[in-house]
Amino acid sequence: MSQPHLVPTFAVISGAQVQHALQDREKQIVDLVEATYHLHAAGESVNPPSYFLRFPDRPTARIIALPASIGGPAPVDGIKWISSFPDNVQAGIPRASAVLILNDHDTGYPFACLESSIISATRTAASAALAADHLTRNRLRPTRIGFFGTGLIARYIHTFLTALGWSFEETGVHDLSGDSAAGFRDHVQQSDATGQVTVHETAEAVIRSSDLVVFATIAGEPHIGDPAWFDHNPLVLHVSLRDLAPEVILASANIVDDVDHCLKAGTSPHLAEQLTGNRDFLHGTLADVMTGRVTPPTDRPLVFSPFGLGVLDLAVGAYVYNETARSGHLHVIEDFFHDLRRHG
């Protein structure tokens, strides 16, 4: 006979607790993200298409649902619900806000709600740092980095790269907001990073002066269209997905995190597919590179376009939950589930 399932307790984990659980754990999180990519590539995950909730009266805003399930030795299900309201920045509050719900594998009951903007930024930065490592193993390691877009995601990516031992002789910074660019420059200078930090006035300048280019903008459509700006064959971490015109994508080697996810919702690779009618411009996934099935060419720019998989949020969220529980600081909501008798 099967064992009876118990209704799990329900806990709420605040942003402060999330940050505490992840503080100075960059190497562990990158290893976790790498393991999760391997599970996903092996078919031990369920990662349906993300759902975009858009608003006719607020065309720049959106809320995205990312449901997912991870198998393997520690299975967990759940969903991230993340909003992007760019106008928030002008009001002095962050653009993105999010929660993550974790569901019990056996009963389906949700057992935790976590503040997730930090989890989302962390998994994004870990994925970018992991890609930078694997995608430079057969080419010269970059010594000049450029950040195009200087918000929270750029800060997290910089933190992860430096924590994993990257150092740069030059750091370039460009943002449409001069205040944001200056603030990010100050962040880099106050960190443990070495080398010169330069705020560039133009997109072309920051791209041409960088061997590693990080796009972390809120662009809704391509705004970089000249492949000649990339003639020095940099590695491009195209985290924001919609900055590059199809012409730049087609002139580059292209690696994604998941083919079907990345080629939709008007991303730059999706536009390239629509232009050409095929996916021949894709060289493979990051998991293909990690396992040696694909070795990207070095005679052209190399672009990594990660759509951002819900399984990564789940993996990091479960890590935070376990660390918080281990520390004895879970905030459990007593009697969250009520009226549990089938017939009253």
Automatic annotation (TrEMBL):
Superkingdom assignment: Bacteria
SUPFAM superfamilies the record matches: NAD(P)-binding Rossmann-fold domains
Protein name (record): 2,3-diaminopropionate biosynthesis protein SbnB
Organism: Streptomyces mirabilis
